[in-house]
Write the structure tokens for this entry.
Amino acid sequence: MELEKALPLKGIKIADFTWYQVGPQGIRYLAVHGATVVLVETHTRPQGLRASSPYKKNIPSLDGSGAFANCNASKYGISLDLNKRRGQDVAKRLIEWADIVVEAYTPGMMKRWGLDYDSVKSINPDIIYLSTSQQGQYGPCARFKGFGNLASALAGFSHISGWPDQEPSPPYGAYSDAIGTRFVAIALLSALDYRRRTGKGLHLDLSQLEATIHFLAPLIMDYSVNGRIAQRNGNHLDRAAPHGVYPCSGDDRWIAIAVFNDSEWQALCRTLGDPPCCRDARFATFLARKQNEDELDRALSELTEGLEAEWLEKALQAAGLAAHVVETARDLFEDPQIRHRGYFHWLNHTKIGAHAYDGTAFKLSRSPDNYFAAPCLGEHNELVFKELLGMSDDEIGDLLVERVITTDADLPSALQK
Amino acid sequence: MPPEEVKEQAASETLLDNYRVLDLTEGFCQIAGKLLGDLGADVIKVEPPGGSPSRDIGPFYKDIPHRERSLSWFAYNVNKRSMTLNLETATGKKLFCRLAERADVVLESFPPGYVPGLGLGYEKLSQINRGLIMVSITPFGQDGAKAHYKGSDLTSWASGGALYVAGVPECPPVWVSFPQASLHAGIDAVTGALIALNERSFSGEGQYIDVSTQEAVIAVDQFVPQMWDMARYIPKRTGAAYSFPPGTIMRMGLPCKDGHVAAILFGGGGLAFSQGMQRLANWIDEEGMAPEWFRNFDWVNDYSLGGASQETVNRVERVIGDFLKTKTKAELFAEALKRDILIAPVNDPKDVLEYEHLQVRDYWTKILHPELDDTLTYCGPFVKSSVAPVTIRRRPPLVGEHNREIYEGELGLTTGELISLKAAGVI
């Protein structure tokens, strides 16, 4: 109870009509800081993320996806068929209860259910209602299906990732999702600030594409002002050399090194024992290194490839250089810094037990957080319908009989046990 | 009130209160102050005399390197005011404390210990202003074995796991050719600050927020940590492809006639995926490029992510790859929109600026820079709000542009004092 009182977003209630990554993970920033979040799902069409690996021990199951779990920590889950009129009525009661509604369906879907902003503001006039989709609520491509790797390509990330003489190597996965989630969080938190001051609600139209382009803004300006079309450039950076990723001993081990000036270059040379290439005129000054950067990378690779990555990281850092092992999934769990700060949270999931959830990258000095495992599909029906919405047992029984509240029996045949 | 005036008032409303933010950050985490400014906060960029070193980061306006022409600096410093102040002088520290007295948020990105060493750490400032929220953004956070490690965007990308999983197998891991790590950390700083401001609204107390760029990058690695933790799987770089446990590699990008496209080329239980595959297969069939087995393929049951054998995937991708090579990016995207297929063009910055959809939504914002005698194109709002729009209200400031209005107008210094502070190298 004391903990609950101290939570920084205590009392904020969110009806979560989102799926996949951007909406769920954006809302999660608020959930783990104390907002009460009810995630609305259905058995009739379980969301795609529940069917995404990884699964614990590689055993697929409806409630066992680590992808789904990680995006939906600290939320309550209900199962409701929004295609049924009574399902829509229940959703409206949830919206009446809520301070915030977030939806991430293809634009137009919530309207079909009578749950769009214009329809629900009459039942909750000061509701904060955020719609997030790949390209926003209107415009010629608004209904294009919103997956993050496509948005990354549309925004320009794929084009500028990889090696100049090869096809694009886009950032891992659905990269724009990782940006979109963060913008969802700050949009919601600002809207709460607005409502606190004015008492008014609002509708927010968050286009993941439009948010994501902010992460490349200077390149757009470079084109519009200087006519330059940025290209993928390996690991190089105009103001540093060497600036790259170099092989180390062991299986697929690498170190990233960034050298910004001549004194850092000299420090690098000293750390590596002053090999002959350090006296090579082609590498003596920043400009010379920049001109001969490919040769520089080759020479440096030859020097690093027999060295242990962790040793080299420590040695270069001791010499005052930015250098770090290129961490694998496994390294993230063994990195003493990440362990020390307690980034990962091992939360006990009802069906699959304890596994690692991401934390957040910021620590609040005074306020606690509130992590608990993601819900199984419909896990909190009773809690939400009875305690949060005040429904009677009879009413809930009716909704079950009419299959408005869905159960395993409503799963598509392919998923029936 | 006549409707015109109502409209006027609405236009000046902002999502965030007019919070006073003192921005001491450098590099691309400066996006933090910019976003708070976009949302309505009064953000003051506190620069060392002569200007922020981040003003030396290119590209530059008309390719002329100059502290008032950095496009990177412009992009992440709109909606801020600028004052100069030397925090390493005794007078400079005093002036900063006076500013902090009435500030809501201080943002800084110096190495751990530097700001407390100046006597301006959170402990000290919170005694002057108990409601103050202070946010530090560093490569590894404030404590722990690596807290004093030096960081850069590339090494942060490496330390958080995003680097290892990108690139092609025959080359080293590769980043995005525009630094991303500090941008992620910058937004996390905003999220932390906004949560603390919400909490302050009922407690009256500020707090200290410690942002780790390494951890901000981990959040980028879509489910990579979970792959190790749950399935003991280490995803590797596979080029423009997905690599999911148990290990099948499925393409997410392919060449076409005039460039490249990104695509989702798997089916499975997600209907958007399997139906999208079916529609693509139908189109390929209509154009006479689908072999018999491909026409009758079961995209739901035999082609989920990680659920098909590599051999099957290779066969399917050969058919699709051959087809894509007969079409341009524009042809593929137009038909993808029409047929509801998951293919999008790999845009370069020119394509992005010319993308019709963004123009229809009036996304780009033109801002006049009188001293350049030019109007520059900025990214539009990251969210469209039905009230209190997120807008650019100020062009990025010149070095110390607002010294007089802040020192004289707010701190009550005289013009004479201002001149002597300048002579003494304080401002």
Notes: Chain A touches chain B through 164 residues (CB under 8 Å).
